[in-house]
Each structure stands twice: as C-alpha cells, then as structure tokens.
C-alpha cells in the first residue's frame, strides 16, 4: 500500500501510510493503542475505503476488484472472534470457502486438511463457542487457510492468550506462511515477540508509519522512546521459548 489515508467520522485516523509484505514473509505492525493500526488493516481487508492512496494485493487495487475476487486474495483473523454463534468448528472453517463455488466433497477435504494443519482434527464437530481461546484462534487460522489467499492479516491474534498459546499461534502462522508462500501481516502488541517473529517490522504512531525494516534495525531505544514515551533498557531477561510438541 502507498499513500493510504483513512478517515472515521470526519476525523483523519491514518495519514499517508505505506508498507509492503512479500510472499512468504511475516511482517508485524506495532504501535501504541489508538494509533490507527486496526483502521489501517481495515483498509486492506476492505472494511473501510481509504480517503486517499492505493492498496494493492498481487498488483491490483483491492478496492476496485469484485468482492469475491478480493476475498480470494485476502483472509483476516480479526481481534474479536465472531460472536459466540452456534456453529460447529467445521462450519466456521467452511465459511472460508464463501468466495468460491462450493464443491462439497472437495471442501470437506480442504476443511479436514486445514484442521489437521492447525492441530484441531478432532474438533470438527465441536461447537465453536465452546473452544478455548487458543483453539478458537487456531480454528480461525484454519478458516483463513481454506480461503487460499495470497495475503493473511491478523489483528492482535494473541491478545487473549497466555504466553504458551501466543507462541503457538505465531509459530503456526509463520510456518504456514513460509510453506505456502503467503504474505502475512500481523498487528502485535509485544515488541519483543514481534522482533523475534517477524522478517519486517512496521511501527505506527499517530496514524503514520514512522519506521519499517528488519526488526533489529527498527527497534532502537530512540524510536521506542519517541513512539511509546518509555525508556527501553536492555537487561537480563526471561526469554520464553516453545517446548517441543504441539502443533
Ligand atoms: P489501534 O488499532 O491502533 O488501537 P484504531 O485503528 O482502532 O487503533 O483506532 C484509531 C483511532 O480511531 C482511535 O482514536 C479510535 O478512537 C478511532 N476510531 C476507531 N474506530 C472508530 C469508529 N468506528 N468511529 C470513530 N472513530 C473510531
Ligand atoms: Mg486495534
């Protein structure tokens, strides 16, 4: 995307934002609460039309594509999981096939493969609302997988999870993206985690992208203090790593 601005209720929220994510790459978007990250994401998944600028996926302006075509290019795992509806996990996953002509047998197969891939193969008939937070997020990743898109967007996919489940989701998404050559852009809260997982990091502040690049170059103490108003100090710290096993 380049030069993207967005307004809500007549107020400018995003100002001339530009970023790119290549296939197979995991990019993170970070920034203080209320700086405009979700609004920016919404212009990419077409929940909001930018007031200026261009959002392209695979070379085409997403806001000019037929709806069905843009849904074949971009999948979203949003912050708020869709209401506690009475759908089964399998039904939620199959919603990812909405932009395609349904082919029941093949779609069942896709659903089974995706559930297997996220470690939920036993949960197909369970009611989605009864899943744990981590399982819900994995089911939504499975739904995104059957959508077979070039771009996967995640808006704070780990915000309700404990640290082990946070790492699990991030590992899963990064592996899938690399394996499928899918571009992934995730809004993340934890700067250390973002730095550990992403290939490219974008920092947003007051509606603008103020830095972008490899995380070790972007996350300088100066930038952190300017954007977050805190002092960043390197100390000996606990580093959490996922133990073997699990998906
Ligand atoms: P972030 O995701 O970085 O926390 P958001 O994009 O959600 O930030 O919000 C950016 C700004 O836009 C905030 O000031 C917020 O209050 C405002 N905002 C968000 N949604 C709406 C809306 N539907 N109508 C008006 N203002 C909104
Ligand atoms: Mg947000």
From TrEMBL:
The record's keywords, sorted A to Z, are: ATP-binding, Nucleotide-binding, Transport
Q: Which organism is it from?
A: Nonomuraea fuscirosea
One Pfam match, given by its short name, reads ABC_tran
The signal peptide, as residue positions, is none
Q: What is this protein called?
A: Iron complex transport system ATP-binding protein
Q: Which GO terms describe its molecular function?
A: ATP binding; ATP hydrolysis activity
Can you give the residue ranges of the ABC transporter domain? 1-231
InterPro entries reported for this sequence: AAA+_ATPase, ABC_transporter-like_ATP-bd, ABC_transporter-like_CS, P-loop_NTPase
Recorded hits in SMART domains, A to Z, give: AAA
